[in-house]
Amino acid sequence: MKQRILSGMRPTGKLHLGHLTGALETWVSLQNDYDNHHLIADWHALTTALDRTAELKENTRQMVMDWIACGIDPEQSPIFVQSRIPQHAELHLIFSMLITVPRLERNPAVKEQAKALNIEDKMSYGHLGYPVLQAADILLYKGDLVPVGEDQLPHLEITREIARRFNTLFAPVFPEPEAKITKFGRFPGTDAQRMSKSLNNTILISEKPADLELKLRKCITDPLKARRGDPGRPEVCPIFTYRQKFAPETADQIAADCRSGVLGCAADKKELTEKIAICMQPIWEKRRLYEENPSLIDDILEDGTSRAQAIAKETMAEVREAMKLP
Ligand code: TRP
Description:
Elements: E1 4-9, H1 17-30, E2 35-40, H2 42-49, H3 56-69, E3 79-81, H4 87-95, H5 101-105, H6 108-117, H7 125-128, H8 130-139, E4 145-148, H9 153-169, E5 178-181, H10 209-218, H11 238-246, H12 251-260, H13 265-292, H14 294-323
Parallel strand pairs: 1-2, 2-3, 4-5
Helix pairs in contact: 3-13, 4-8, 4-14, 8-9, 10-13, 11-13
This protein binds tryptophan (TRP).
């Protein structure tokens, strides 16, 4: 029996290269060795997008197209929508009795987010409890492993505590899932800060070739290298990180030529644009197939959701039995 992986993402729309390197490539690499389930966490998105719920449907479609274009096989690994499976809400309610409010308030990930969003004194009850919903997402499918970035570790700890508490109080229904830390945690955007939609520094997976070229052309490089001839520092240059990712076999030579000054940034960028386009071509082509046949995505979500729900129903039957609910 393969171990089960439950991975999840909020539907934020078109994904970028940070998602590709930080999450999707890991998901795809695990696809054959594990029993993978991919959750679209649209209820989680409500914590910060309550004023934009009308975008969730289209954002979901765009995200799923990126997942599939990058190699997630929805037949092998069901893709499903959280809000279409009411058992997530049902288990969340039960789990919400198994954890204290102070414990949730101590969660560093939520604290940081509250600070960043300036909502420390007006966080909703649902927002505070979203790690409990995440615990339900994972445990409903008895996930053994959860691929997450470092920042999500506090949430996973809450999942494990809830599983333990349920198992001791009632019956051993749940595994204690482990984190599978995804590497390449920080992928730089075109301004050298972490690539993030909110910073407006992304390169999309679905970027059109002309926009890819433009974004690379405008991308920051080593600020101390003003012109060709100046010695550059590849280690501070996002363009060089992109090269390590998309054309690693050329990285040593390029680094040497950048340092010595023989290579200028403009020429380097131009050549790299072609290399990236070659890597992305199969992804772009696959994505186009789904863009042109929107009903394919509807079918995939319907199929994935019904397969996931079958598991969710079984788990809830066990939960009710363990708790001796009337
Ligand atoms: N909390 C995750 C995020 O904000 C998304 C998520 C929801 C998730 N449920 C999950 C991730 C279950 C892994 C497993 O990005």
